[in-house]
Amino acid sequence: NPIPKKFFSKEFKKNLILLGITILVMALFFEIILRMYYPQKIYNDCYEYSYKNLSNLEVELDSHLGWKLIPNFSGCRYQPDTNKIITKTHNSNGLRINKDIPYEKGNKKRVLLLGDSFVYGYGLDDNETIALRLQEDLGNDYEVIPMGVDGYGTGQEFLQLIEEGLKYHPDLVLLFFYPNDFSDTNSIDKAFSDKP
Hints:
With 196 residues, the protein is an alpha/beta fold. The protein is 30% helix and 19% strand. It has helices at residues 10-37, 117-120, 130-138, 154-163, 180-186; strands at residues 59-62, 66-69, 74-79, 84-89, 109-115, 142-148, 172-175. The strands form 3 sheets. It has a 3-stranded parallel β-sheet, with helices on both faces. Strands 1-2 form a two-stranded antiparallel ribbon. The chain has a two-stranded antiparallel sheet with strand order 3-4.
């Protein structure tokens, strides 16, 4: 049985091309809708921590504080609420700032920031942290020193101030305190390690 010639007519070919274009346009339309309302997570080295790869974990264990920021750290993290990759940079003293700050005080007034993830800038890119914004607002006569560490409670912040923060000879110390700091101080279930 040979295939009738009407299957290869111009009208059939035109309808077949139109069907293909319609399917392509609908697939493109659904792809755009899915990307707008249900964005896919970016799976790469920045996505999340795992026991196999801790290279983007910004803290290390500390026998006195429980944990602290890793000096000279540079890493990234996928932030799901903004669907973007953020960068995290620590200086040689383990502060989240892209420059080294000597302990010796110069002519600038120093503002030391103590706190937990809010001061650290959890979920924010290096150029979006409160320390950087405060530095921009205060200008060149001031030096803002961020000492925020994710998950710290008030006890750790106090020890950090006594052991490290006062070495910077701050003119002003700002403690960022939130109601969850009470529970963070007394519990280890949200912590990387035992707390002091």
